[in-house]
Write a structure and sequence with these properties.
Number of strands: 7
Strand content: 25-35%
Strand order of the largest sheet: 4-1-7-5-6
Helix content: 25-40%
CATH class: Alpha Beta
Order of helices and strands: EEEEHHHEHEHE
Largest sheet: 5 strands, mixed
Number of domains: 1
Distance between the termini: 5 Å
Structural class: alpha+beta
Length: 163
């Protein structure tokens, strides 16, 4: 049996709009704006899904969960993550670790990081020590700095067992 190590990177960004719920890492965050998207627009989970699918050579989140499919309308992105995890498992691919950076000028996200990590580790069957979430600002630069949107970058390591 041989184990192959693969790395993936994912990115997602969504616009902040009035009167929408803000969900990041499956955590509802109190804020006067939320992210606009077909599903719940959870950029953190979308970036992770893309990173996992990319590392595994299994496409991307848009291919797996297209915004043209009504079943994905307002869908909880944690369901996407669980489905991606099942798909990886069906290809004998395990998640080793995840590192995510949220980019947002506001709101302050540090108080919610532990809950995000807890959700992600539960959904992927990982010990929480293998899931890292951090947040940063762009010091007022760009669309995130103007508080027009939130972005996320995810890096993942997966391992595939080959007979």
């Amino acid at each position: 049996m041989k184990n192959l190590i693969r790395v993936g990177h994912g990115f997602d960004a969504h616009r902040l709009v009035d009167r929408e719920m803000l969900v990041l890492g499956g955590v509802e965050i109190p804020y006067h704006k939320g992210l606009q998207g077909h599903s719940d627009a959870d950029v953190l989970i979308h970036a992770i899904c893309d990173a996992l699918l990319g590392a595994s050579g299994l496409g991307d989140i848009g291919k797996l969960f297209p915004d043209t499919d009504r079943r994905n309308r307002n869908r909880n992105s944690r369901e996407f993550l669980v489905e991606v995890h099942r798909l990886l498992q069906s290809h004998a691919i395990g998640v080793v670790n995840i590192d995510v950076t949220l980019v947002a000028q506001a709101p302050k996200l540090a108080p919610f990081v532990d809950a995000m990590r807890s959700n992600l580790s539960a959904d992927l069957g990982l010990d929480q020590s293998f899931v890292n979430v951090k947040a940063t600002t762009t010091e007022g630069l760009g669309f995130t700095g103007r508080a027009e949107g939130i972005a996320a970058h995810a890096a993942v390591l997966v391992e595939q067992s080959i007979a």
